[in-house]
Amino acid sequence: MATKVSSGYLCCLLLLLLSGTAFSQLIVKTLPGFPGELPFTLETGYITVDDVEFFYYFIESEGFPGADPLLLYYNGGPGCSGLNGFLYQIGPLKFNITGYTGGLPTLIYEPSSWSKTANIIFLDGPVGAGFSYATAQEAWDTTDTLYAAQLYEFLRNWLSIHPNFVNNPVYLGSDSYAGIITPILAQNIINGNEAGVEPFVNLKGFVLSCPHTNTDLETNVKIPFAHRMALISDTMYDTAKDSCHGNYADPDNSNCTEALSAISQCIELISDQNILEPACAFLSPKAKEMAKEERARRSLREKSNNFILPSTRIGDFWCKNFDYLLSDIWGNYKSVQDALHVRPGTVKQFFRCNVTIEYTVDTDDVVPVHKNLTASGLQILVFRDLDIRHQSINAGNVMICSTDGSIIILCIAKNNGEVICQYGDWLKAIRGGARSPPRRKFVREEAGVNVDRQTNWFGQVSNEPVNGDDNATLQNPRAPVQLRDKGNNEKQGTVLDGANMATENKGILETNME
Description:
Layout: H1 7-18, E1 23-28, E2 42-49, E3 52-59, E4 70-74, H2 83-88, E5 93-95, E6 107-109, E7 119-123, E8 133-134, E9 142-143, H3 144-161, E10 170-175, H4 181-194, E11 203-209, H5 215-228, H6 234-244, H7 254-267, H8 285-296, H9 300-304, H10 324-331, H11 334-339, E12 359-360, H12 367-373, E13 379-383, E14 398-399, E15 411-413, E16 419-420, E17 428-430, H13 439-453, E18 471-473, E19 481-484, E20 490-495, H14 498-504, E21 509-510
């Protein structure tokens, strides 16, 4: 079937070409470290947005590219490369760390990739991340709102030179800090579509993995979360609660500071990305020094928010996230950069996550944006469980819809006690998410399998849960639902009102998913 393209869109494309906007796209047939030709279509290139050259990795769906969704996926940091998502989270390749002793790391095929049923654009963003760079000095400076605006322009420019995907359903995907960016970007797209900006972006929803949502809420919920997960004792928790009066983000007395310090020491050897694992180092030595410098130049207020972070230790190569080191090694091989068609001399050194980018935080709360999006009809998948740093959706007027700590959908509580739980008529419940790299098994093998079993990925979800899986689907967030546990036993989910939510500290969907 021929793609329907409007005359306005053609004019937009012509203007882009005449304006001298630079585009560069090339197919990658082979990659150093992977034997033979790639078993999927990989395109890399640059998209110009003002004075920034954004580098991307596009993987065509291994299913039905013309009909499958288009996912724009970018990582947090801020400053992490799209290779983070490509090689560690949802992409079709991963490093083979077995027996690695040095030299060029080898790659193996990942059969549980989301590219089985989706076209995926992995982006190096913001500027300074991965192989993206600026052509003017002032363009190296980025903010949250500027980055979200640049992403919108990137996506429109990308669609302009890939007209075959203009009509595909579009989804946004991000993790960690980029949880701040995604709702802003979604709102920008909606506003642009309503204003008639072309090409029209067929936005259907977004995916948030352990998202950063609200700085103060996330800080304040860490202590209750640590207590609920039995990481600290009742006595330690009660001392902090009585001394800080629930304000752990900005302690105003010495007793509170001492209580928080004791908690920090108690859990410093536990991974803040996955509380079921010990903390371990995963950055290269040079990146660790950069991280120290970055922490040193943060504001005192930001430091006060950082009570529960593990100490950095060297030599934990037994750790699951040891293979983070391999991306820094692999990405700096000239043969790798040549194969990816990286422009020579534009990036002095590749880092999986560049902590030295010039980035200014100008948004620390996207709860109001989520409120605006509740009427948009967007579909949303949010997952997190074991990441101690991004638990804000448990707190305040943004709540989870589950009793065990897993997110089903964002629910907004109004001042009158009414609870709004509607992003659209679609709901998907998955538990067990931890921040990468421990999250990789969940993202690829659990969430990925769920996605693969649906007809149209996020778009058409059946009313029945997948037998044997820890998940459920729900068409109406306010109606009873049928769930199944691992033994395929049915459970009745119930909807609670705002009063029960507030007094019982339970979620909208009440069920035991163990």
